[in-house]
Amino acid sequence: MTEPSFQANTTNPVKSSQATTVMSWGLMSLLIWHTSTPISLAQTQPSIPTITPASIRVPDAYTLGPGDLLRVDILDVPEYSGEYLILTDGTLNLPLIGQISVAGLSVSQLTEKISAAYTPFVQQPFPSVRIITPRPISIAVGGEVQRPGTYILPLSTSNTVERQFQFYTVTQLLQQAGGITQSADITQVKVQRQDPIRLNIVVNLKELLENGDLSQDLVLRDRDTIVVPTAENLDPVAIRQINSANFAPEEVAPFQVVIVGEVFNPGTYIMGEGMANLPELPTITQAIQRAGGIKPQANLRRIQLQRLTQAGELKTITVDLWQLLTTGDATQDISLQPGDSIIIPTASAVPPDEIISLASASFSPRTMMVNVVGEVTQPGALQVPINTTLNQAILVAGGFNRRRANTGSVELLRLRPDGTVSRRQISIDFQAGLNAPNNPVLQRDDVVVVNRSALTEAADTFEEVLRPVGGLIGVSALLNIIHILTEDRDNNN
Hints:
This protein is an alpha+beta fold. It has helices at residues 13-36, 41-44, 107-118, 170-176, 205-211, 236-243, 284-290, 321-327, 352-359, 390-396, 454-466, 475-492, and strands at residues 50-51, 69-74, 82-85, 91-94, 98-101, 127-133, 137-143, 149-153, 156-157, 164-165, 189-193, 199-203, 225-228, 255-261, 267-271, 303-308, 314-319, 341-344, 367-374, 380-385, 409-415, 421-427, 447-450. The protein has 5 domains: 69-133, 2-Layer Sandwich (wza like fold), CATH 3.30.1950.10; 137-243, Outer membrane lipoprotein wza fold like; 255-359, Outer membrane lipoprotein wza fold like (Roll); 367-452, Outer membrane lipoprotein wza fold like (Roll); 455-492, no CATH class.
């Protein structure tokens, strides 16, 4: 072995110094050029093409990878035949030829590669390759789904007669992920494919639902990623379509919603409380029922549903329940999902006929409390059906006290939305129809005041005057005499 030889530097020191100076300037120029010329990483990375399922003319063959169990047969050479597992490094260990790299190849490509590898040793090897057990595939699902994450799915199915394989589609993976949320944009579902080349495939599941386009329900491959985007605008019709799809959630655990505004008991409610799973998603009107029902002053045309997307963005849907009541537009009764907030605003003015229609709605209370006080047989708080009129409330309270009541008119007190109280004098006519000017429909917490007649007021005042004296005639007897005289006068007239 020769030792390395070291020689002394015998060159001209001046020339060496010049060379060093030139080299230093060269390195400095290179450094200045490097720091002043930025390199764009985006320019060095090739763009990933975006296509639609219709652009995939012929489905790509299954590509082999670690975990696949293969059967390799060499014609008339049984000692070289057998079952072989693709190892984690993507290689296959075969007799005589040893390890060969097979990851990413199709079965036909592997067959050609094995044939070429055995040709030096076997004359006309004629190999055959088939998959005994395919490896499980790994699919990632993100975006507007109930349970985003990675899913490991076996392709082989148990069958005692013969081996069968099952390949998964986009909608099947969405079902595996618990179904899509109501905020999903099903027209722009993206499948990001890694194998054999990187592709972005845009799937329109709306075409599948409306036209039965099966090409949109793409067959997935190992390491595919499904991303379900959030819709720009949440549309009640689109939400109803999503809820009817087979890749919507089948069962949902009880969840919490918030409802505020013009309901009788605003607050937080657990929809489906006490149930293991909800057979179907609850709707806005069901949440209103849980909150005690809608108030008469509610603005049904501008109800707001606030919803948080999977990306953390707050979306608002305007709901018109008046369309539900008047035209039967069921799309307005939107299904709820966990974390929703319902805001019911106050109307500036509500016509009387709309109040009657609202009171008859399924999401209004069935009964209400009103007060009839003063000169009736049974004064006090009454629980009456919705749309009870003034005349009906007086009758429920036992009717007028004929000896003391002013039967000509009553006073109606009503609490306004701004906290003030309105007072209205109403003439009584028991022949009046529903919601006539003198027989209005009552609202919750209305107070009907039946005042004393003028004669009763005079008698009560006279009684107060005579009470300290005692008098020769009892006060009650005096009232009876006055009442009899009054009846005789009326009869004579």
